[in-house]
Amino acid sequence: MQKLTNKEEEVMKILWKLKKAFVKEVLVEMKGDKPHYNTLSTIIRNLQEKNYVGHEAFGNTHRYFPIVTKESYRKKFINSTIADYYDNSYKSLVSFFAKEEKISVEELKEIIDLIEKKK
Predict the structure, then answer these.
(1) Can you give the chain as a three-state secondary structure string?
(2) Does 93 lie in the same domain as 55?
(3) Could you tell me if residue 71 is inside a domain?
(4) Three-state secondary structure string covering 40-66
(5) Mean pLDDT, to the nearest integer, of 5-13?
(6) Total structural domains in the chain?
(7) Which of 5, 38, 73, 81 has the highest Cβ tally under 10 A?
(8) 60 shares a domain with 21
(9) 16 and 50 together in one domain
(10) Are residues 58 and 93 in the same domain?
(11) 61 forms bridges with which residues in the sheet?
(12) pLDDT, tens only, 43-90
């Protein structure tokens, strides 16, 4: 599984949300500067070549659907991010968020409770 570009990830998030969609439906869901229809169609075909997306044919048009789940993509790339930027240490990751004040003491306590319940 290869890493996706930002635009490809944006399209995948839409497809994960919609489950199945035509290019025009994906275009409606896009935020900010929307690409041209043909550009979006090319992005989706690239996702299909990378085996992230499949399609159903309806005459000359296609309805696309995700083949890769959001969970499997997230798991693959969160693990590589932790390996690349946090020396494979989840402690370093959590420490980073604590130092940046992106996680509260209450949230940390909830995480500890989750860990303790698994034991």
Answers:
(1) CCCCCHHHHHHHHHHHHHCCECHHHHHHHCCCCCCCHHHHHHHHHHHHHCCCEEEEEECCEEEEEECCCHHHHHHHHHHHHHHHHCCCCHHHHHHHHHHCCCCCHHHHHHHHHHHHHHC
(2) no
(3) no
(4) HHHHHHHHHHCCCEEEEEECCEEEEEE
(5) 94
(6) 2
(7) 73
(8) yes
(9) yes
(10) no
(11) 58
(12) 999 999 999 999 999 999 999 999 999 999 988 888 888 888 889 888
90's tokens: 């989840």
pLDDT at 102: 87
| 1, 49 contact by CB (below 8 A) | no
One-letter identity of residue 71: E
List the structure tokens of 31: 């935020």
Kindly report the pTM of this predicted structure. 0.76
28-62 in b/e form (b: 16+ CB < 10 A) is eeeeeeeeeeeebbebbebbeeeebbebeeeeeeb
84-116 tens-digit pLDDT:
888 988 888 888 888 888 888 899 899 889 888
